[in-house]
Amino acid sequence: MRTLFKLILLITVQVLHAQKPSNIEMEEIHTIYDESFTTDANTTLVLNLSNTAARIYKSKDDKVHIKYTMEFNNYRKKIVESSLKRAIVSGKKENNKITYTSKSRNSKYYRQYQMEEVLVGRLGKMVDSTNKIKPVIRKSLDSILIQINLSERKRLRKFYGTFKIKPRVKKWKKSDKLQITRMVIYIPENIHVRATLENAQLIFLDDFINRATINSRNSKLRFKTIGHELNIFDIDNGYFNAEAVTSGSYSFANTKEVTIGRLSNSLVNSEFTKIELGEIGKNNKVVDFNSKYFIYNFSNDFGAFNLDTDYTEVNLFFPESIDYYIETFGYDTVHYSKGFTGVIGSPSKYEPTKMMTIGKETNPNKIKINTTHGIIRLGEDSIDFGKKN
Amino acid sequence: MKRDIRDLFKEEDELKSLPENYRKEFLEKLKKQSKKKVTSFSWLKIAAVLLIALTVGFSLFYNNPEEEKVSPIIAQVEAVEAEYLKNIEVEWESFVALADDEILISRFKKKLEDLDTDYQEISVKFKNESDNLVVIEALVENLQTRLQILKNIQKHIKILNQKNEQHENII
């Protein structure tokens, strides 16, 4: 176990600092890939990324630019060669389709810190966490945006805490071992992006309003604003954070963390996922099976917000400062709302009925929840999750 | 020119007579030769030891001790896997006993089968890349997801059942 621990620690600490700016001049800089491709409105960019971390920016011209470097300081030649061999990269342009593929045998990004949970008592921790019940308080949109921006740091802190590592404060010296991997992709905003991602980590540092078709497994994605009416995102496992989603269709299955600041004009299809929504804007629909939703705020003109749910837990804070209408329709659903707790719609009848309404039906801002076998909690500023079961 | 052959033997006998200090000189020469042989054998020994030391040193220094690294990881992952699978089985049986919705049970069965298929795919990767932490993480996250969804749905059903009983009591 000690050997394993040291190994994990060694690799992780090396990787943890991989994306940090250094104050030292690196001994060796290897360019793995450096290419630019011209595009037009009909160009499609196909990204196949596996075990890869990349930063994505909006291109300042009409070209796709891809640059991938690996930098080493104080590493033996053989180790450097081995690392370089593990990076498999290719790129080409054919018939106005640019295809870029990047694979690495060993992933080089900080999310490896989660290994501590894998091998150091994760099971125990997980079981304990299911028994902790505490009231949930309303989060403002700003606090959700901060939460999104700090999501990586939060995980890093968790890693440091578990391994009892004090974050490095002293400056890097020339004699230190250091490896930095950088992949940067610049994408013009008018092209279609099709991405297949596996164990990847992508951070979009500019708004991404391209049409995008993304199929992602076990990946971590962070966006500022995304949105295109033809967007199709299929996210299986992993993490998804976006400051704003302005349109498109998004599917989440078994996703560990979905946090969206503002959501508008979108269809969300989900199962077995925990989803936090900072603010509901216009024309959204949710279809879900057995997920947990936390809906904190509504814009003043959100119009219609519809949820079709089965075995779903919906935790919703009432809209503030505006009139609204809430309706629940279905059967066999526990409601916790304004002093009322109980099941409405007996499971023995299995006939959908209007179960609960709040406000006037004529109000233009309507929340309609179709629910079967659900749990609906509604609250002003906090939601009480009741006694421990 | 006839010659008695016995004279020839006499001459040879005279030639074969050794100097007086011959024995001493011979022993000294022998001693010197023995010393030389001993010295060259020592050098060979030293060279062999150095060669072995360098070979071992290089292999330790440059080669990744894959076996040392891999074995504990595989053992740990196998232990984690066994523990999770045992718990998943317990939770599955508990869920089936609790749920009275056949559609729900079949949906969960399908989900768990899909997750198991994913797991088999990741396991193949793990066999080839047992030192890849991301693969190990994916393996365990898969197991964790299976266990967690089973725990969550049971908790959900218990809340529904609890409130249904209260509802029936009120009616």
Task: Please describe what this structure looks like.
The complex is a heterodimer of chains A (389) and B (171). In chain A, the strands form three sheets. Chain A has a 14-stranded mixed beta sheet, with helices on one face. A 13-stranded mixed beta sheet of chain A has the order 5-6-2-9-11-13-15-17-19-21-27-23-26. Chain A has 389 residues and is an alpha/beta fold. In chain A, 15% of the residues lie in helices and 47% in strands. Chain A has two domains: 1-287, no CATH class; 298-383, no CATH class. In chain A, a hairpin with a 2-residue loop joins strand 5 (87-94) and strand 6 (97-104). The model of chain A is unreliable at 1-22 and 108-131 (pLDDT under 50). Chain B has 171 residues and is mostly helical. Chain B has two domains: 8-63; 66-170. Chain B is built from five helices and no strands. Chain B has helices at residues 5-15, 22-62, 66-98, 102-128, 133-170. The radius of gyration of chain B is 44 Å and the shape is rod-shaped. The N and C termini of chain B lie far apart (158 Å). Mean pLDDT of chain B is 75; it is low at 60-70. At the A-B interface, helix 1, helix 3, helix 4 and strand 25 of A face helix 3, helix 4 and helix 5 of B.
In short:
Chain A has helices at 2-16, 77-86, 115-119, 122-129, 141-149, 151-163; strands spanning 28-38, 44-50, 53-58, 63-73, 87-94, 97-104, 136-137, 178-187, 192-198, 201-204, 212-217, 220-226, 232-236, 239-245, 248-253, 257-263, 266-271, 274-280, 284-289, 292-295, 304-310, 313-317, 325-331, 333-337, 340-344, 353-358, 366-372, 375-379, 382-383. By secondary structure, chain A is an alpha/beta fold. Chain A folds into two domains: 1-287, no CATH class; 298-383, no CATH class.
